[in-house]
Design goal:
about 25% helix, 2 helices, 6-stranded mixed β-sheet, alpha+beta
């Protein structure tokens, strides 16, 4: 198995024993990304929109470090602390995937690490 660990400073550091992402063959698998600002380790803001925007920005950084990008994402999983915030998350999400969006699942969970409102992970193809 060909497995390359993705570890970058432009996305939040792992808060446990896992990698920010893994590239294997023509695929990139990301860890779940919270709405944390990499430089400070703090949430970008208290609301779902701000945290979603930051989480997707972090996801983009990990994908690019693995040789992919948002246009090559095949599947996304969104974990929400409150499904009542789905529509607000979805508005921001649509900004990042305006055309031919990937397959997606969205689930509510009992809690997220560090008290986050949203966590997003993806599987993508390597570009070209």
């Amino acid at each position: 198995m060909n497995k390359e660990i993705i570890s970058i400073e432009t996305a939040p550091a792992a808060v446990g024993p896992y990698s920010q992402g893994v590239r294997s063959g023509d695929l990139v698998f990301t860890a779940g990304q919270l709405g944390l600002v990499p430089e400070t380790g703090d949430f970008a803001g208290p609301d779902i929109q701000t945290q979603t925007r930051q989480a997707l920005g972090n996801l983009k950084e990990v994908l690019e470090a693995g040789g992919s990008d948002l246009e090559h994402v095949l599947k996304v999983t969104v974990f929400l602390q409150d499904m009542g915030e789905f529509s607000q998350m979805n508005e921001v999400y649509a900004e990042f995937f305006p055309k031919d969006p990937p397959a997606r699942s969205a689930v509510q969970v009992a809690a997220l690490p560090l008290g986050g409102r949203v966590e997003i992970e993806a599987v993508a193809e390597v570009c070209g």
